[in-house]
Design a protein that fits this description.
Elements: E1 2-6, E2 9-13, H1 19-25, E3 49-52, E4 59-60, E5 71-73, H2 77-92, H3 108-116, E6 132-133, E7 139-142, H4 151-159, E8 166-168, E9 175-177, H5 194-198, E10 204-206, H6 210-218, E11 223-228, H7 249-259, E12 263-266, H8 267-290, E13 299-300, H9 305-314, H10 328-336, H11 339-344, E14 351-357, H12 361-365, E15 372-373, E16 376-377, E17 381-384, H13 385-394, H14 416-419, H15 426-440, E18 460-466, E19 481-488, H16 490-501, E20 509-513, H17 531-547, H18 557-567, H19 573-579
Parallel strand pairs: 1-5, 11-12, 11-14, 13-20, 14-17, 19-20
Antiparallel strand pairs: 1-2, 3-4, 3-5, 6-7, 7-10, 8-9, 15-16, 18-19
Length: about 600
Amino acid sequence: MVSLNINNRTVSVQEGTTILDAARLNNIKIPTFCYLENIQKMGSCRLCVVEVEGQRNLMASCMVEVKEGMKVFTNTERVRNARKMIYKLILSDHPKDCLKCVRNQKCELQQLEEMIQLDEREIIGEKSKTVIDKGNPSVFRDNAKCVLCRRCVTACNDIQSVGIINIQNRGFKSNVGTTAGLPLNEISCTYCGQCTVVCPVGALNEVDAISKVWKALADKKKRVIIQTAPAVRVALGEEFGYEPGTIVTGKMVAAMKHLGFHDIFDTNFAADLTIIEEGNEFLGRVRKLLSGNKPSFPMITSCSPGWIKYVEHYFPDQLQHLSSCKSPHMMLGALAKTYYAEKIGVKPEDIFVVSVMPCTAKKFEVTRDEMFIDGQPNVDAVLTTREFARMIKEAGIDFTSLPDEQFDNPLGLSTGAADIFGVTGGVMEAAIRTVYEIITGREVPFEGLHVTPIEGLDRIKTADLKFENVLPEWKELEGFVLKVAVTSGLAGAKILMDEIAAGKSQYHFIEVMGCPGGCITGGGQPRPVNNEIRIKRMEAIYREDDNKPIRKSHENPFVQKLYEDFLGQPNGEKSHRLLHTHYVKRKKY
């Protein structure tokens, strides 16, 4: 431990702690801007400067480690004046359009002013060149609002290992941009949206779909269906003052009804359906393997569109490893315009499907040619969690006072296995619950059905599962050891894909989620996000699972009836036409 003095208070902290963290541990606030907890500390913004006795210059508190006997002052006149000047310089190159900015009242630049307390003097100077990038369906860039904090650069390069944006040029001409200034739709951007999560201002956001949804709701000829992903219900509440991890499923459904949607379905229903299709696809590959054929192993999940676009760009020769299953919300969209349309006697072209997702990449996914059936898109519009919250507020709905309501059937009932799709490891755990029971007739040998080796926030998690005393129809699997791996975030995906490309992968089944922690930290989720918030959302997802009366996908009665009345059999002709897809080899530019 190291003892030091901060603002005339003696404190003790662990050796190696920065001044910033030492202050925070003792409830002393120091403003930051470029800093990201456990991710980025670079001292570039200089807003966190403090005065250290014996040092001539002010020091960036995020960069300097404490020393025994150090005397630190965080609020001297010199420090306050320096922060004011730095803040004014940032503002001098920033648009003054706060009232029409999507980040208004949720902007870290605005929040800093409350602590820094500017005087009336303003610095007037030249403005950086405005660059607007809105040529893609997922991520909107406005460089005029960029404050060069480099958070997005860290997210893209270090967290996701994609590296398509970096600091370009030098001095006043410095800007965050792509190689040769190309728009995002001309390079290998995965549209994961992690840059939009960490951006402190309005420079990076999801492409807006709210106006498109309002227009559909106003169209009397349209039957507007809405569905929502599992990660939304444990994060949406944060936009209305609830603690992270608060489950607001019932109020969310009630808000959807107040907004005027005709049918409120649950993407979780299609998550259960995904497990049936994907599980049978996997078992088909295993049987081929044991019969001496050479199927593509490992098989890799296909729920995450950011991950899919990544592998299409960076590992185009490995696409055969991907499951052919569409993501759950695309499956439900396809069923809404076929199965449900027939059921209610409405033409597919008169149905408008909206997905509320934690993801920005799904905005791109719905535009893919492979996601159309008979000229109709499976899903017409995607709203992020943040956008859906804005719609609720725009409609004047008092979210906190809403009574809890239920999803509509037949596409609204789901099991606990579907809920855990929202966290890293959840798709694999749900698949194992079903596959193991199909083969052995018994539940998975883990307490509470939780496959604990693949739960949690570690970058790569692995597990082995041996099949013993199998059912007679699966006798060829007696003694087979299933090897699985799970990763979230594209940096982990790169590690596993490099092994596959080199012919060194030992796994049979791999789950990849494009965002760190899985969908709970998707590019469209409420800000801010750190590990504490991730853990609270993850715990809420598992509570949803634990409290469901049915917790295995193959036991969902509405899914069973769907096969009986409409689809026929898993991986059959009709399900392949509606629920499966193919992938595209892409280049990096």
